[in-house]
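Quick one: structure tokens for this chain, please?
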Amino acid sequence: MVEKRIQPLARDAMAYVLAGGRGSRLKELTDRRAKPAVYFGGKSRIIDFALSNALNSGIRRIGVATQYKAHSLIRHMQRGWNFFRPERNESFDILPASQRVSETQWYEGTADAVYQNIDIIQDYGVEYMVILAGDHVYKMDYEYMLQQHVDSGADVTIGCLEVPRMEAVGFGVVHVDETDRIIDFVEKPADPPAIPGKPDSAFASMGIYVFRTKFLIEELRRDAADPNSSRDFGKDIIPYIVKNGKAVAHRFANSCVRSDFEREPYWRDVGTIDAYWQANIDLTAIVPELDIYDKSWPIWTYAEISPPAKFVHDDENRRGSATSSVIAGDCIISGATLNNSLLFTGVRANSYSKLEGAVVLPSVKIGRHAQLTNVVIDHGVIIPEGLVVGEDPVLDAKRFRRSEGGICLITQPMIDKLDL
């Protein structure tokens, strides 16, 4: 890994987070919130990872473009990300789709979400733009990517994740030469191009792009004038630059932030119920693949004022206990038994209930004698006494949203429909 410059490039960069996505594969979890606003890891939201990476990398100007059902996302950022100070040359702009270009035009694509705010970007006079997706879980120091961008003379540098070649069929895949210059960009190819020298691996785009600001604005204006464009980075802007300019791949392994406990670069698109459940449950491992306890790279978020978690009762079959689990503040485990589970703030688990492989979002109340296995429970759900989930797949599929991997998503409207 290259040494950092004495004067960080991040101080002259703006991070622009694209956070308008619906996240339809998360089903009812995104009925009331955008995917970046979905809860993750016990106390955070998914967007906190991209924002924390930018802050920890030294970037002090951040913009977040929102669109789909943005209220909870905006509220979260107002509460948890309101510490930037203009007098320190810092800024944090929330940029909803506000029809700035046309009275009838919302954000039409990822590129348009930047194009419509060019005037705001120009006002800050930053040299570099770091374009980020707001819906992935990972730790990355963008300074290294900025340095590579400058040193290589690229028009665009694209963050790339090395994946098994045939697993890349669901991604945008970059085809590189021996110098990591991108010679082709293919969206969800049936036969992904391999990395030179690694026939079984491919580079998947992470949706992270670095540009010089002046060049990006020129490209956005060119694209906006093209009536055939879909106004999207992955479909329009990037393929054009690959063909007509210089695009370079940045290897995520070179800038991934890892503590002493993390063996491999960690990046997850938690865009399905199964992936979301697994990434949360991964945090309950003795040595998790993602270290959220690393104080050198904190994941900033809205820190609620809450009392400590509490475990009560010590009777036979009624003992408040949790093993291999993550329990947030203001949880009361009252005679319940938990294993391999993750509970967000304010959960109440009542006597004789048992949770195995449960991801429980804030303010859920779990009734007595409930037996819940491999579930995701949405915010504020009241689980009735004696409810059993995870033992009868056919019954579960009738009552709840059951994923291909056998995970049951439980929401309050589903509970309300039960004939108990």
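The first helix runs from residue 47 to 57.
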